[in-house]
Amino acid sequence: MQGFPRALKECLPLDRVLLYSGPPCPLGASKGDSILRHLLLLSFLILGLWPFSSFAAPDANTQEEKLVKIRLLPERATVKGGETLWVGIEQSIAPHWHTYWRNPGDSGTPPRIVWTLPEGFEIEEILWPVPEKLPYEPLLNYGYAGNAVFLQKLRVPEALPEGPLTFSAETEILVCKEECIPEYGQYTFTLNDSQPSGTDSGAYLKAALEKIPLSVSWPASFTEKNGRFVLKITHDPQKFLCDETAGDIAFFPVEWGLVDNTGVPQTNFSDGQMILHQKRGDRPLEEVETLNGVIVCQSGDGTRQGFAFVAEKSAVLAASFPHILRTTDGERTDNIWVALIFALLGGLVLNLMPCVFPVLSIKALSLVKIAEKHPETARMHGLSYSAGVVLSFVLIAAVLIILKAGGAQIGWGFHLQNPYITGGLAILLLLIGLNFSGVFALRTSFGNIGGTLARREGLSGSFFTGVLAALVATPCTAPFMAGAVAYALLQPAYIAFIVFAALGVGLALPYLLLSFIPALQRLLPKPGRWMETFRHILAVPMFLAAIWLFWVFSQQVMPRPHPAEIMSLGSAYSEAALAEALEGDDPVFVEMTAAWCITCKVNHAIAIDVPSTRALFSEMKVVYLVGDWTNEDPAITKFLSDSGRNGVPLYIFYGVRNPATGERPAAVILPQILTPHIVERFIQGEIL
Amino acid sequence: MNHKVVYFLAAMVMALVFIGASAKAAVEIGKPVPNFEAVDIKGDTFRLDDQKGKIIVLEWSNHECPFVGKHYNSGNMQKTQKAALDAGAEWVTIVSSAPGHQGHLSPEESAKVLEENGSTPSAKIMDESGAIGRLFGARTTPHMFVIDEKGVLAYAGAIDSNSSPNPATIEGAENYVLAALEEVKAGKPVTRAQTEPYGCAVKYGK
Lengths: 688, 206
What we know:
The complex is a heterodimer of chains A (688) and B (206). Chain A is built from 18 helices and 24 strands. Chain A has 688 residues and is α+β, with helices and mostly antiparallel strands. Chain A folds into 5 domains: 5-47, no CATH class; 68-210, Sandwich (Immunoglobulin-like), CATH 2.60.40.10; 214-314, Immunoglobulin-like; 336-543, no CATH class; 564-683, Glutaredoxin (3-Layer(aba) Sandwich), CATH 3.40.30. In chain A, strand 12 and strand 13 form a beta hairpin. The longest helix of chain A has 31 residues, at 375-405. Chain A is elongated, with a radius of gyration of 35 Å. In chain B, the strands form 3 sheets. Chain B has a 5-stranded mixed β-sheet with strand order 5-4-3-7-8.
């Protein structure tokens, strides 16, 4: 109380004496001599509102003098080892005064309770009863008036000492009418007393438990739309008491600032979903990922039932448009065997990717040369190479899993978001290209691609060729891979490792088979002079790959305008841009790409940035949004994972709003390999 | 298209967005604050726009609120104020209590409270109508705002990280206003630019 500053240096306001040693302020101690203040004190005295506490620290569980009378209510008077019991903390609040919920709303502060427990005892978090909205114009608080019982579960240790056990709670409760007064107190109760006192609170606490919101695990998400907060809950109709006919539905967010507390929520119900709109508060949505909240439904007879839920922030939620995704390429799976087959197939296809293929074809041809004389050695090379590939994939998976566990918003291809890695890979591919073209002969383990394979130490060379193949394969996403990787990253670590290892086995398999099966070796042309020329030719894709990686590197280290995809016909993806686009009626096409993603670039060049598709987009008024994942971008990673993916490319098409129903059809994920025809069929709605 | 042209167009679009947004919300972090003009308790006219080039701290107060008491009786608010004034900032204490409500004072009484507290703001304004409070969306006492030299809102929220009314909690709490002042002074963006204000409700009239 700013009005008593001088006095307070020597004494404490009466209500604080309870907790602090030192003399209380005598009533006349105020040196602020304003008549107003005297009148105020006088009125307090007359009305008996002044929290005129006894000066001794209280040990009883009630103090008649307080605005908030506290009682500690254990469920029963005796306990045995290993049991749990409820403890109620009852607030009886003086008429016209109120205390606060865990989110106090526009002002105030929640009550605090600090327990001192006998050794070995533990007490769980407070369960807060359903709060009320307490308007104080132009503000609004969340809190309690009258009577409120907090509940905490007490855990009794196995080994329980003999004799009475004393539990004490220090409380700090802010109670307000127009003015606010903090009340401090210390309260105790005893269990296993030889002469138990007081009545059994079991039945009373059971009734109190009814007022605690029912904790539900219904899927819930929240977002912002047109300056309004939007919450969507898919509820269980058997349990949910709110419906269109419910008189009053209130929303109490535990997180502050997301909604304007004075805002009146509007609700819509359809198909087991409740969508709630409320005016947004001033806190940025980016600050909150997970929202705890309570929905309170008041039925006709005045009973109020609360439901406590946890909602995740959604990038693409729109009130009239649930984000239900359907895939068309059959790549999504929740079956480990299917995931393993996808991984194996994906790995096989990786062999054909532009930077992997040259390395392997040279390797394969030299293998034939060895196998003629030393079939045993050829098999060893096959195994070394496979080990290199598989171990690399497992290592990449391990790093990915560890970083994700640490909270990093990353996905497949994450290492290419690092310019050091793209730069290093570019130099590596350049060196290999130079080696192929005969500019210089490398004798390092990477360079062992030529004729020295027959030597025993060449095995380490094969191993590192495997590592190299895995590394240069990562910018590519093959069909089937996305489903397998997405599945793997949602599973426990050991399953993820198995799936990634399967991907590696797929990549290694052709060479491995070649090294073991002479019949396959005979299918390849005989080694000879032509191989030199072939090497020179294969240097070309290596150089191209190197140039491409240098370009990616430059994109990462230099400030850049929007990527070509956006410049050509679209606009940049953001949560807000998508939400706005979905708000409208026109179809929406989202492309998630990255400079280092070859598959993305190829798709864009042959299926999207072509005259026919461009014409189609403008004819159908398609809103085209491009997300660029070249560098780390949590918002895009979030969109990918919301769509069940962990990497790019990702193409999602949101169909045009049906004018009759006002609804959009479910969004569809396009295949990862596109042709203009595929795109056209999706946009024309032939595949839905 | 030439890149420069693209950047220019992008900047134009952004500018339009800003203008649109500022018309919607009164004050927002990173946006210019609206101007106000008021007569302070000494009878001088205070214009916010006249302070451009200086950092400004706005403090919402109500001398009878225990949370205000928490920070004045402990000397925490005076310490924060001194740090701001020493850094060349202006400190404006605003009381938006309506007549007949808690914290409303005559200019003379208001000056006396300052004297008793050892508080030396650059200006103290009795905002009886609550117009300035509503303009800034002030909800609690204390509710703190830091405005940078360009007149852009750099911080809004609580004075510190512990919302307890207990003065013993000041020690160990993070003083958000001091942290914001330091970063604004250094020309850096404020790390924690918005926090939940705590305290008594501002006693606006109905």
